[in-house]
Amino acid sequence: MDIQDLGSLGELIGGIAVVASVIYLAIQIRHGISGYRSQTILETTNHFSNLQLELAKSDTLLQAWAKAERGDTLEPLDARRVINIVSSYLIGFENMHAQAAQGMMDQEAYDARRVVIASLMAYTGIWDWWRAMGKNQFPPAFAADVEKAVKDFKIEVDET
């Protein structure tokens, strides 16, 4: 075997090493994306779990929330409490919407929550808040989807 044969063998080994490196990197990237998706799901779950836990720990918040669910008239402080709770829910849903749009969360997971998003709009004072200023606090694509969900699920809101 002469020097030229050794050079050819070296090139072959180098080519194989490059292909192996590319395959290894592709596997690593796939694992990284999978880990990111898992982290996204965990953070979203934590957001909603923490919100519900905070709500459950406060009689004042629970009473305001129950009044809003029933459609009762709310005192200004209770109305503010309910708006803050709904806003926090919507922040979580907006994150889900964005993650699903980027392929980092299952679209079906977000779609399954759209009925909840729409239902929140029927609570006392929420639709008025949404139309006056709430929707301006969110990206236009999410705001449009909230309004579409209200129509899709035939949620009754005061359109006046």
What does this structure look like?
- The protein has 160 residues and is mainly alpha-helical.
- It has helices at 3-56, 59-70, 76-101, 107-120, 126-132, 140-152.
- It has a domain at 48-152.
- Helix 1 runs antiparallel to helix 3 (76-101).
- It is elongated and about 95 Å long.
- 17% of the residues are buried.
- The mean pLDDT is 94.
List keywords for this structure.
single chain; 160 residues; mainly alpha; 79% helix
Percent helix: over 70%
Morphology: elongated
Based on CA atoms alone, the radius of gyration comes out at 25 Å
Largest sheet: none
Distance between the termini: 90 Å
Question: Unreliable stretches, pLDDT < 50, 5 or more residues?
Answer: none
SSE string: HHHHHH
The number of helical runs is 6
Tally of strands: 0
